[in-house]
Specification:
This protein is of the alpha+beta class and about 300 residues long. The chain folds into two domains: about 210 residues, no CATH class; about 70 residues, 2-Layer Sandwich (Alpha-Beta Plaits). Helices cover about 60% and strands about 10% of the residues. A four-stranded antiparallel sheet has the order 2-3-1-4. α4 runs antiparallel to α5.
Length: about 300
């Protein structure tokens, strides 16, 4: 109980709660305004729910898509808790259970009917535009949630299981799990729409990998300079980052020198380059993008020390 109260009283908990709510509101808007009107079954639990809802409708039993989403997610949450981890499972409990209510929230706040032109059946008026809008918005939402070890539930749970146990990229995992679900659309949609859904699932995986890499991108900077001590102090004291020093030998002239390597954010890299230019520090500098970091590295920029 004490540990639970500490978690509930932490700033991290409430900030992540706000992020999860905002991310799921974005995902719910994508589903309500772009996926449901076009009846596209992109590889997702929502797509599967649309299939089930339509099958019940044919049988004369009205069943809301939001209700089916909630029921399926509730089942998958048990899998998330047991197979992925308690933190991921607990966060996904929250995000998965609010997806259905958030879809209904958008329906009440701004009904789709008010946005449609007479005779128009979808928001964009074209199934391909609906597909692209849905995939891009959903991918952005998924990236935000995966970044804080949460998910939109449903397909993301299956994708995370594939990612954890088969060590595939998260985008590839989404595409594999989504393609399987997408094929259920043959029960309600013609071949053409199913193919469009499969293409959408593939684009979703690509977009998710791109957004994830962009969000996690860091600069790996390598500097060879005779004034390496000044650079080292600036990185440690001003940027509040770590660095490594290596002894190197020039292959052309045989001179001994020291190379500094450091991982920086984009802003920190820009500050470093400004510092080198302002102080007229010359050297051989290379920089490359790194999208995955394991081990001790502070994801957030450290607060600068107060100088008396």
């Amino acid at each position: 109980m004490k540990k639970l109260l500490e978690i509930l009283g932490s700033r991290k908990f409430w900030s992540e709660l706000v992020i999860m709510t905002a991310g799921m509101a974005i995902a719910a808007a994508a589903v309500y305004y772009f996926l449901m009107p076009s009846k596209l079954v992109v590889g997702s639990i929502t797509g599967l729910s649309i299939v089930i809802s339509n099958l019940f409708m044919v049988a004369g039993i009205p069943l809301k898509v939001s209700l089916v989403v909630t029921v399926i997610n509730a089942i998958l949450l048990v899998m998330a808790w047991l197979m992925i981890g308690h933190e991921f499972g607990a966060k996904t409990v929250y995000t998965a259970l609010i997806l259905g209510p958030l879809i209904e929230m958008w329906e009440k706040i701004c009904p789709l009917e008010k946005l449609l032109e007479p005779g128009q059946t979808s928001l964009m008026g074209d199934v391909w535009f609906d597909l692209l809008c849905f995939v891009l918005i959903l991918s952005a939402s998924q990236t935000i949630l995966f970044h804080i070890n949460a998910s939109t539930g449903g397909l993301d749970i299956l994708a995370k299981i594939v990612n954890k146990y088969f060590h595939l990229d998260i985008g590839t995992s989404v595409s594999v799990a989504g393609a399987i679900i997408c094929c259920t659309a043959f029960a309600i949609n013609p071949f053409r729409l199913v193919v469009i859904g499969l293409i959408g699932t593939w684009i979703n995986g690509l977009a998710l990998d791109y957004f994830t890499a962009s969000l996690n991108r860091r600069k790996r900077v390598c500097i060879i300079s005779s004034r390496y001590e000044e650079i080292r102090k600036f990185i440690i004291e001003d940027l509040q980052r770590g660095c490594s020093l290596y002894s190197v030998t020039g292959g052309y002239n045989g001179h001994q020198n020291t190379e500094i390597q450091s991982l920086l954010t984009q802003d920190e890299f820009a500050h470093l380059m400004d510092y080198l230019k302002t102080n007229d520090i010359h050297g051989f500098i290379t920089a490359g993008n790194v999208s995955e970091i394991y081990g001790d590295w502070n994801a957030k920029k450290r607060k600068k020390k107060h100088i008396a």
